[in-house]
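Notes from the 1:1 (GR / supervisor)

We went over the backlog. Supervisor wanted to see one worked example end to end before approving the batch request, so GR pasted a single chain during the call. The sequence is below; no edits were made to it. Supervisor asked that the structure be written out right there so they could see what the output format looks like.
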Amino acid sequence: MKIVFLFVLSMFLAGCGKTTVVNNSADDPGEKMSKSSEMTVENKKPISILFVGDMMFDRYIREGVNKYGSGNYDHILEPIKEELAKYDLVVGNLEGPITDNQSVSVDTKMDEKNNFRFTFDPVVAKVLSEKNIKLVNLGNNHILNQEERGVEQTKKYLDEAGVSYFGDTGESGNYFLSRIENVQGTKIGFVNYNYSSEGSLERAIEEIKKAKGQADLVILYTHWGTEYRVGDPGPVVRNLAHQFIDAGADLIIGTHPHVVEDSEVYNGKKIYYSLGNFIFDQYFQKETMEGLGVKVTINSDRSMDYNELKFEMTRRGQTKFGP
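Structure output shown during the call:
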C-alpha cells in the first residue's frame, strides 16, 4: 500500500512541473517522508544567450542604410534576423551614443578627427529591440563621443525601446557597471570592465563580488586590449581576465580589438578575449570584416555549453553569416 501511495504521489508532483527526489534509506525504513532528504529540481528548458561584438551605426553604416536600404535600418541585420530571434537574449556592445545630434563622421576619411566621433540615429534603439538585441553594454571608449548629455539621451531612447543596458561609461561617477537580468527564472549578473574609464578595474572586481551574492551566474563583458591584434591578446589582458575569474566571474566576453582573438578555459571558466566586430564599416582588412557570435546554453544545473557562429560585414553595410 505504501509503494502504491508513493508512486501516485510522484506522478502528481511530476504533473506539477517539478521532480522531487526522496531519499528514503533502506537502512532506516521507519524514517518518515517529512524528515527525509528532499531535492526539488525545476524542469526548466535550457536558456540560450547569444553574445556578439562591437556595433557601430554611424559613418558608412549610416550611408549604407540610405544608399542600399532606402533609409530603413532593418537593412543592416536583414540577412540574420531569423537567427537573432531564436535566443532568449542577445547581448552586444553599443559602440557609441544614440542621440538626435547630426552626424559628423559621415563622408570623413580615416585620418580625420571626426571620423571617430559617433552618434547613432534614435531609430537604432527600436531596431535593436525588434532584432532581439535586448541588452547592450555602454562601457566603451566611444560612449562619451557626444559627452554626458549623449549618454543620457542613449539611456532615454533605449528605455523607450525596451532595451536594457549596463556599463562603466565614465560619467562623473555615474557608472552603472552591472545589471541583473532574470532570464527564464535564472538570475544572471552582467558586469562591465572598460579600459578607458579610470578606476574601472577596481570597480569591476567589486561589482563581480557583489553580483555573485545576488545572481546565479555572473558574466563579465569587457572592453579591453589592443586594436587589430589578432589571436593572442597578450599577457596584460590575460592577467586581467584571470583576476576577474578569481573574483567570481563565471564567463568573460571581450570586445574592443575589432578582430577575433583567442579563447581559453581558466579554472574551469571560459574566456573569449575578443569577438571582433558585429556591425562596423572597417573594410580595410579581412579580419575586421569578420566577427564571432558565442552561443551560450545555460542548463538547469547552471553549467554552460558553448557554440560559435561566424559573421561577416559587407560593403553594403550589412551583417551576414560568415564562411
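Supervisor's comment: The longest helix spans residues 147-161.
Batch request approved.
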